[in-house]
Amino acid sequence: MLTLYGDRRSGNCYKVELLMHLLQRHHHYIEVDILAGDTRTPEFLTRNVNGKIPLLELHHGETLSESNAILNYLADGSDYLPSAPFLRAKVLQWQFFEQYSHEPYIATARFINRYLGLPDERRAEYAAKQDGGKRALRVMEHHLAEHDWLVGDRFTIADISLYAYTHVADEGGFALDDYPAIQAWLARVAAQPGHFDIPRD
């Protein structure tokens, strides 16, 4: 039995759990409260010295961290990860985009608002994330205006990686009204069998 350590509110944890549901991979889920310091305990740090979630524990005790690395591991050999080298590289291209151009803005703004309650001392940082997040959304909108999916002609883990924080972008202050192609893509992802969204409450 695989064990996933995560926080159900976190987009990075959600993307792994979503893929596991799509693959119908049975697993044990252990909820981790990052604000309570659960990832800094000696017990957790023996599993991931970097003290972060998600963390996947394999059958024989090996562990794997970093959400997109976990996605690539779980999706290997499935329809969610292309076998052609160029298309696999395109999946990685979008995943690197997600981690460097999308997540630092949209996910961070969402964290400040949803997890911390938008405290006064973080409002300037929250505001500073808006332009970068909108820039990332424009890149996605430009691509999705001409393509149904991010890579090739089917739903892949590239879509899962970007969907995770995009479908809750409003919680970081990013309205999607001006991004019709993204909205249509979100609906296509939501129509996948086995799909579920991050809980809003």
TrEMBL record:
User: Into which family does the record put it?
Assistant: Belongs to the GST superfamily.
Q: What is this protein called?
A: Glutathione S-transferase family protein
Residue span, GST N-terminal domain: 1-82
Classification from the root reads: Bacteria, Pseudomonadati, Pseudomonadota, Gammaproteobacteria, Oceanospirillales
Segments passing through the bilayer: none
Q: Where is the GST C-terminal domain?
A: 84-201
